[in-house]
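The authors assume throughout that readers already know how a fold can be written as discrete tokens. Each protein is reduced to its one-letter sequence and a matching series of backbone shape codes. I therefore recommend that a typical entry be quoted early in the introduction. For illustration, here is how one protein appears when written out as sequence plus structure tokens:
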Amino acid sequence: MFVGYAPGDTIIHRLDVRTKVLGFVGMIAVSFMFQDPVYQLAIVAAAGFLALWTGIPLGRIGRMIIPLLPIVVSIILLTGFTFAPQRFEQVSSQKILFYLFPGKRLGASVGGFLLGTTFLLRLWSMLMASSVLTSTTSLEDFTQFFLKMKVPAEISMMITTALRFIPILDKKRRLILEAQKARGTKFNGQGITGSIRSYLPIMIPLFINSILMANSLSMAMLNRGYGRTRAWTPNCQKSLALRDFRAMFLIVLAMMGAIFARFKLHLGVL
């Protein structure tokens, strides 16, 4: 579920990393404020617009979420049957659609299914927001952001290295998958345990490749003298521009509007 950095010349690409992180955190915070899927759908639409603006095809994001659909459907069913109607404020959300067992036991509430749908849309908006952030921000900008936030150099190195190697491991996974299919490996095992066993020919080579990559990286870092000094000197110093202050103002204004709508007007509540 990772979209690597793609250079571009959009306004979002030119924003400072601190502005983009603020926008990402703001969108995630707003998505957790509302329970009504209608409001979540508006957030998904906004995230989708940003993704298209930055050049990320929505089909690629859709392919990321397709493997999660069985889990999401299970969550929708679970919330539909386990959330009691009394937990919802709206009368329409307290309505029972049907009962799973005789004697009016284990009823499926409207609010439960709507809340499960909200979870699905929330996951999609978080996925698109994170994709916009990672596709428009280089690792050097992330490193400078961690420096501004006074994050220790070791932790910053671990995070940026993980971000760098996720696309590489994904490419290796696809290569291993194609190689195993060419050797006649079947990936249609029956049941949960069967599915896990069928993917062992992919996971074992992928783990071995990860260990080899980590070993090569550690030797390269030692040969370059990493850890010889505690001082951390960035390659460049970036400052906030006027467009960053304007974007921050709009982000804060949108967050304040969402807080007012949720806690003062009581909108977006099931």
